Amino acid sequence: MAKLMVLTLLGLGLALFRDHRASYQARLNAFREVKPVELPNCNLVKGIESGSEDLEILPSGLAFISSGLKYPGIKSFEPDKPGKILLMDLNEEDPTVLELKITGSKFDHSSFNPHGISTFTDEDNTVYLLVVNHPDFKSTVELFKFQEEEKSLLHLKTIRHELLPNLNDIVAVGPEHFYATNDHYFVDHYLRSWELYLGLAWSYVVYYSPTEVQVMADGFDFANGINISPDGKYVYIGELLAHKIHVYEKHANWTLTPLKSLDFNTLVDNISVDPVTGDLWVGCHPNGMRIFFYDPENPPASEVIRIQNILAEEPKVTRVYAENGAPVRLLEN
User: What is the pTM of this model?
Assistant: First the structure.
């Protein structure tokens, strides 16, 4: 009888493992192959060999790029160097990147590990850059003032809070006010790996201000990119491993009400919003298995989708760019 019980439990355990493994592979889109979609005049920009994690474009055409992210379980091309914020002028015919100098006596350059970024322009045209940072794999938000003449960032303060333990992306709604995604519930790396494997969908979105911090949405399977509509009425949240983008209505008290969700055959990451048309431009990972299990012979692919009229009953979705790992091969060669 005891042997039968052991065999039964073993069989149930193996069945459960197979079910979770199949679910894990589906969530990572493990078997997706990518058919390239090329864009004219598309060139590899030198100076970002350590990768670019997020991009924020000012109305003037200046673009901030966070580079050099070290994230547990993902390949880093410069593991021993601190991250940086780069500046690119998209008005130039052949844009190049410039590393912005960071000033401020209380900022630790050596542990700078930037992730998601967002800007806020005040009424006096002061530009603030908010950066998700992972010093020693913890989570903070660094607040900078952009000094365009000096091509530098003045560090103003570091924001920490218990509801901001696993930050991924951020969208600023004031100099010190923002929504942010936590891509995991657990902080411990071992528990995070099981959370990811089991698909617990416990990640969440937080609203932060100096006087109020509150969870505004939860139940996500790896909450990732976040952004806001040009009129400030809607918040868009990317759910990486559910392959969804969620649309929330933003209220005057900063609470969020879910309106709709869109499904995709890709892992949605960062979301950029056209300030004029309101179109969403979304950076995506067609096959997540190639991100978390890096193979230099078969590097991760990427693609960009454009979503027009997202509030319509049938938004127009266009796959505008896709590649099968070619830029990574160029960097490695």
Answer: 0.92
